[in-house]
Specification:
Blueprint lengths: L1 E5 L10 E5 L8 E10 L2 H8 L15 E9 L11 E4 L14 E5 L3 E3 L6 H5 L2 H14 L7 E4 L5 H13 L2 E6 L5 H6 L4 E4 L5 H9 L4 E6 L6 H6 L1 E9 L12 H7 L2 E4 L3 H4 L2 H17 L6 E6 L3 H10 L5 E5 L1
Parallel strand pairs: 8-9, 8-11, 9-10, 11-12, 12-13, 14-15
Antiparallel strand pairs: 1-2, 3-4, 3-6, 3-15, 4-5, 5-7
Helix pairs in contact: 3-4, 3-10
């Protein structure tokens, strides 16, 4: 019997409970791991509340990121053996392959071996944030040296990953955050400039920073009224990549800015990278190289124990974190 986290109805963090269940052996093409650490993502809170792109099937598991030790391998799996130290590229379905458990099973193509010295907490904190940011900035936008990139929700794990990736490329990361509380931390994390959107004029500050060249790339998780000043500050032919919808307010379509500047507004899910083996291989190589040379380094906001999963989700939804939340087993 294995301890797993499940929920039987939609709701707040309090609906999560730790239960025991039998876990079948891995099927053909799967790898089962003994989980040592979990990386938490906002998608898991959305699934729990019933507002995610995937529907829960009760009782439902959840979780997208894990690191641990290979327990068993299914038929046809090559390259993995028991006791290998591994981490997990987020699966396309966390309902089908939930990570919140002492023992969890995943498709072999999403399992990555790495040196044990990387550490379980760091390994569990890296794939979602770096794959999301890499897919948008490098794979889609083709971010280059000297490009100005505006990054909203910059203190999130994905926002911080985007800052690091921009710096690794030689671009100019501009971090947007609601208040000046996290200004110093964002500068220490590598942001070239920080804009407190509740306290400053976004458009004026971006125009001041980017000058006549404008902002070529906007990486946005928020939406809402900020679309207007963000697009107003963009360069002709620039691209705005939307990967979230944190704002509770309507998002206007900035028709004049889009038309006069020939802007590209593009929705993006990390799934499009994960489901494409060629693009995923390039992303993994970039990320592993960055971890190796130190240009990419996950920032962990706080670590909780498995038994504190409810408290961990409360912290996840508090928006007080700076970086990734990790749960250890």
């Amino acid at each position: 019997m294995t301890r797993i986290v499940r929920f039987h109805r939609h709701g707040g963090p309090e609906v999560l409970c730790i239960e025991t269940a039998s876990v079948p052996l891995p099927a053909k093409g799967e790898v089962q791991i003994r989980v040592r650490a979990l990386g938490l993502n906002r998608a898991e809170a959305l699934l729990r509340r019933g507002t995610y792109i995937e529907a829960a099937k009760f009782p439902s598991g959840l979780g997208l990121e894990a690191a641990g030790i290979v327990e068993a391998v299914g038929e046809g799996v090559a390259g993995f053996a028991p006791d290998d130290t591994v981490s997990i590229v987020p699966p396309l379905s966390m309902v089908r392959w939930p990570a919140y458990a002492e023992l969890a099973t995943f498709p072999a193509e999403l399992v990555v071996k790495h040196p044990p010295e990387l550490g379980f907490e760091v390994a569990a904190a890296m794939w979602m944030q770096y794959l999301t940011a890499y897919g948008a900035l490098v794979d889609i936008a083709g971010l280059g040296r000297g490009d100005v990139v505006a990054i909203t929700a910059a203190s999130s794990s994905v926002g911080l990953a985007a800052i690091q990736i921009a710096n690794r490329i030689g671009a100019v990361p501009v971090a947007l955050t609601r208040t000046s509380t996290k200004r110093r931390a964002l500068r220490d994390a590598g942001a070239a400039h920080v804009i407190a959107s509740d306290e400053e004029d976004i458009g004026a500050r971006l125009a001041e920073i980017a000058g006549s060249n404008g902002v070529r790339v906007v990486f946005d998780a928020v939406g809402g009224p900020a679309f207007e000043p963000l697009t107003a500050a963009m360069s002709p032919g620039g691209i705005l990549i939307e990967y979230g919808g944190l704002s509770p307010e309507p998002t206007p379509f900035p028709l004049f800015n889009v038309l006069t500047k020939s802007l590209v507004l593009r929705g993006y899910l990390v799934h499009e990278i994960i489901r494409d083996p060629v693009r995923l291989a390039k992303a993994k190589a970039f990320i592993l190289d960055g971890l190796s040379d130190g240009t990419l380094k996950p920032i962990i906001a706080r670590t909780f124990r498995f038994e504190e999963i409810v408290e961990a989700h409360r912290f996840l939804e508090s928006n007080d974190q700076f970086g990734k939340i990790v749960v250890t087993i």
